[in-house]
């Protein structure tokens, strides 16, 4: 059995970057849940997709919006194709082991590992004096999310690579400190549990195209929920006329014609990347043959149509799901129950390895 785990923060509305960089890939993992290895053995993959609400409070947040953002994010996972009969969808704060393992891992994670985190530095700069301990600790909570499920495949966008490396380092450090030699075996024996590895080292699975969708107002910075300018991103739930307007106004350059990978034309690459990503199966050449000679004025409506066409069915499914939150709550409860079973088992092993008095 292999496990896949990933999550998105329920801060504001999810955007095209979250969808193309992460969620869409989750659906692929889910649909390939049964594969064969080279020897023909069946490999089953269990998928866990989490709404990481504990992460969402690491930046100032509005308590009157968190519940709605959480439900909306979960509904979007389903609308984008996550099927609760194949994957577990749950809310991070519903499984208490996440917060608890974070504390254990905090106590073995050197401060200077966290001081190196690029996202912390970027976000902390924006907050100045009031930056919270939680923001600093964000990557340890993320490591706990992953390690609790012994997940080895973590589909994320490019910006999460460093956090994934850290999760691997923390896992290794834990094993070096507590699982080498006979001590761990003895502790497991005393607790009456098998001495299996506590954690599994996770791997980042990053899509080839779409792993870094850039802002509509600056082709050199990432499309992001925290950009105060809403026109810098396409939210998955933006109505068609809003999408058309945002594309109409988005930043371009003074050149005629479109091309990939010209470092002086980041907007061209970004908009072509989006155009390709919303039309699965089309190659770069094929895209260029269609639109390469167009002016920006000709390309923009074609791009906007392609985005609208791709998002419309997702938006319709979203609306249908949100008509009845009872169903959504049931999905989240089933997801949390299944997640809790695995997470508490791992937490118990971590506590035993660290020498806690775990009740028999
Ligand atoms: P968040 O909410 O910031 O991002 C969620 C996912 O979206 C990807 N992403 C992008 N991909 C392409 N282009 C963009 N412009 C873009 N912006 C965001 C992110 O890489 C991410 O995959 N820390 C995680 C949430 C998390 C998590 C986890 C992920 C918490 N625990 C455990 C995996 C496993 C994050 O960045 O959320």
TrEMBL record:
Claim: Membrane is one of the keywords in the record: no
Keywords, ordered alphabetically: Aminoacyl-tRNA synthetase, ATP-binding, Ligase, Nucleotide-binding, Protein biosynthesis, Signal
Residues of the full protein shown: 66 to 425 of 426
Domain of life: Eukaryota
Record-level GO cellular component terms: mitochondrion
Keyword Signal on entry: yes
UniProt enzyme class: ligase
Gene Ontology annotations of biological process type: tryptophanyl-tRNA aminoacylation
One Gene Ontology molecular-function label: tryptophan-tRNA ligase activity
Family the UniProt entry places it in: Belongs to the class-I aminoacyl-tRNA synthetase family.
Protein name per Swiss-Prot or TrEMBL: tryptophan--tRNA ligase
EC number(s) recorded for this UniProt protein: 6.1.1.2
Organism: Fistulifera solaris (Oleaginous diatom)
Localization in the cell: Mitochondrion
């Amino acid at each position: 059995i292999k496990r896949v785990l990933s999550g998105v923060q329920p801060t504001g509305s999810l955007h095209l970057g979250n969808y193309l960089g992460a969620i869409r890939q989750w659906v692929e993992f889910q649909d390939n849940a049964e594969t064969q290895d080279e020897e023909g053995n069946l490999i089953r993959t269990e998928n866990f997709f989490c709404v990481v609400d504990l992460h969402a409070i690491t930046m100032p947040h509005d308590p009157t919006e968190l519940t709605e953002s959480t439900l909306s994010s979960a509904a979007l996972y389903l609308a984008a194709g996550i099927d609760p009969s194949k994957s577990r969808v749950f809310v991070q704060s519903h499984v208490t082991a996440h917060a608890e393992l974070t504390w254990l891992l905090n106590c073995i994670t050197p401060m200077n590992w966290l001081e190196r985190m690029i996202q912390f530095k970027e976000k902390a700069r924006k907050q100045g004096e009031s930056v919270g301990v939680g923001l600093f600790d964000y990557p340890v909570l993320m490591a706990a999310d992953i390690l609790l499920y012994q997940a080895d495949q973590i589909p994320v966008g490019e910006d999460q690579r460093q956090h994934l490396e850290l999760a691997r380092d923390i896992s290794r450090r834990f094993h070096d400190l507590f699982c080498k030699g006979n001590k761990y075996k003895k502790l497991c024996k005393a607790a009456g549990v098998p001495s299996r590895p506590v954690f599994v080292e996770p791997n980042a699975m990053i899509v080839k195209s779409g792993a870094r969708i850039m802002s509509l107002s600056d082709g050199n910075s990432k499309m992001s929920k925290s950009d105060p300018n809403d026109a810098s991103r396409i939210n998955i739930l933006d109505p068609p006329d809003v999408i058309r307007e945002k594309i109409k106004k988005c930043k371009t350059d003074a050149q005629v014609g479109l091309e990939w990978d010209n470092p002086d034309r980041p907007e061209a690459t970004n908009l072509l990347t989006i155009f390709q990503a919303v039309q699965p199966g089309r190659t770069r050449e094929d895209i260029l043959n269609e639109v390469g000679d167009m002016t920006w004025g000709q390309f923009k409506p074609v791009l906007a149509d392609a985005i609208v066409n791709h998002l419309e069915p997702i938006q319709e499914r979203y609306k249908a799901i949100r008509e009845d939150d009872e169903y959504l709550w049931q999905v989240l409860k089933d997801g949390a129950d299944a997640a809790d079973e695995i997470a508490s088992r791992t937490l118990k092993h971590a506590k035993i390895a660290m020498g806690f008095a775990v009740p028999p």
